[in-house]
Amino acid sequence: MGYAHKFEIYSGQENLEKVPGEPDLGATGNVVVRLLRGVPRMINHIIYFDNFYTSLPLVYFLAKQGIHTVGTVQQNRIPNNKIPDRKTFMKKSVPRGSYEERVSTLDGVDMSCVAWKDNKVVTLLSTYAGALPVTEVSRYDKAKKETNGITCPFIVQEYNKHMGGTSKETKRGRPSTSTLEDELQSKRKKASPAPPPPKDIRTDGAEHWPTVGVCSLERTFPLDFVRAVILGLTKAVLTQRIYDYSKRDDC
Known about the structure:
Elements: H1 26-35, E1 45-49, H2 56-64, E2 67-72, H3 86-89, E3 99-106, E4 109-117, E5 121-126, E6 135-141, E7 146-152, H4 154-163, H5 180-184, H6 199-202, H7 209-214, H8 222-246
Parallel strand pairs: 1-2
Antiparallel strand pairs: 2-5, 3-4, 4-5, 6-7
């Protein structure tokens, strides 16, 4: 985790005026450029962002300013993309851990685009990190019910290392929630919440927790619950009256 150095509050009208020398990179790209105005140029700072912001024009502009970048990217934002599409990657014949890398140079700026298959396919773009060197990470195989090692490119490791505490849904981009590794795992389904008790039970001012706790029925309908509460209150009142009567001096 880290500190928020600079931020903008979204209101739908953030595409403000640009300073001289700043290109128009679209609404999302302009946000990144504005937030980086105070970052020193030409000393190889590295910026990480998700696919909501990543685009080739943004990555190229920042590289010319001496700022390197790593980010997930949507494949349709990469012109003349030669990487296999998601449908091809997700075929059963393509093993988990497979990756494809394409490298290109634009006006002296080297760019690497890597697509990696985990539970799903994620594509990343960078001006300093590529697929090599690869390492091995552990993944659970539901079909075989065992944990196996799969190949993990260097660019994925770099992204997870620096975005782990800030972005939790890194591949999809919005909303941001865990590391790339966590986001690729399927979300667990949560059961629906228990319905609240009827209004007359909530507003009668009586303590119902003991009655609910001692109820032997697994499922109690609201009418049965009301009857149990009334019976419990009646017994409590009768017991109190008998006790008070027995303490009188004239007995």
